[in-house]
Amino acid sequence: MANARIIVWARRGQESLVDDALRAGNLAIAGVGAPTVADATALGSHWDRPATSDIRQTARETDAAAWWIAAPCVLGGDERGALAERGCPVFTSEPRPIAFDELLTGDASSLDTAFVPLFRRSAGYRGTLDAVEAFGPAPSMSVVVAGGPGDGSLFARLYDAMDTLVTLGGTVERLDAALGGETTATPDRLVDLTGSMTVSLRFTGGRSGTAHVSNQTGGWFRRLTLAGEAGILSIGDNGYAWHRGDAGGPETGGEGAPGSAGTHAGVQIARRLA
């Protein structure tokens, strides 16, 4: 779908994220929402579009092919109902739920959303599926998912990394996680986590995995590494390299291209709307 019109919920500091998505996905902004009036005013001016800090008002007054919730947004029953009534796809770059109490109550489950940019849906990963199958089950896996503050929360990077590892590894038997740097109190909202984190996983059957995630790096980076008897298979947004341990050098292939978080988000939104 060319020039699909979308509504964007974002905050100041995410202009580059959204601009990259618009260019990569050939998308256009129909309306803008933001967590605060100040953010809504600034972003509305940046894109020269109507803007509000009330997601229900935006849903009622603006027609679009899709919603993209790029910034954290607490969705109560009224807000979820307003989005559901529009009957269009809802994409989010902050996973649901965003708060610990939602984890306990399941209040966020009534709205169907698609997380973007998800590594498993990237062209780079999707183009390596044959290589992953040929490599076979890897006893050891590691994934790095990192971006800057404007790309989203640490929880968003953790969600992407865990989705990748659990998809490949299966049932988790043990998990250990640690935030890097000075220890601080755990915030009430998962999306308020910031910094860098290491997570170690043990899966049923003896397989292991490690995730290194950060929302404080200077640029966008995602890479999955599988290690086993078949060698080392390294997968990124721009394809793969399979190091078999022989003198012939690595086998390379796959699709995709390097890009920003916004680039990959825009491509995935456009693909879904096509």
Q: How would you describe this structure in keywords?
A:
single chain, 274 residues, alpha/beta, eight-stranded mixed sheet, six-stranded parallel sheet, 9 helices, 14 strands, 31% helix, globular
Please tell me about this protein's structure:
By secondary structure, the chain is an alpha/beta fold. Helix content is 31%, strand content 28%. The strands form two sheets. Strands 8-9-10-7-11-12-13-14 form an eight-stranded mixed sheet. A six-stranded parallel sheet has the order 3-2-1-4-5-6. α3 packs parallel to α4. The chain starts with a strand and ends with a helix. About 4% of the residues have low confidence.
What is shown here, in short?
The chain is of the alpha/beta class and 274 residues long.
Please render the helix and strand layout as text.
Blueprint: E1 4-9, H1 15-25, E2 27-33, H2 37-47, E3 51-52, H3 55-61, E4 66-69, H4 77-86, E5 90-92, H5 100-105, E6 114-115, H6 123-126, H7 129-135, E7 140-146, H8 154-169, E8 172-179, E9 196-203, E10 208-214, E11 221-228, E12 231-236, E13 239-243, E14 251-253, H9 261-273
Parallel strand pairs: 1-2, 1-4, 2-3, 4-5, 5-6, 7-10
Antiparallel strand pairs: 7-11, 8-9, 9-10, 11-12, 12-13, 13-14
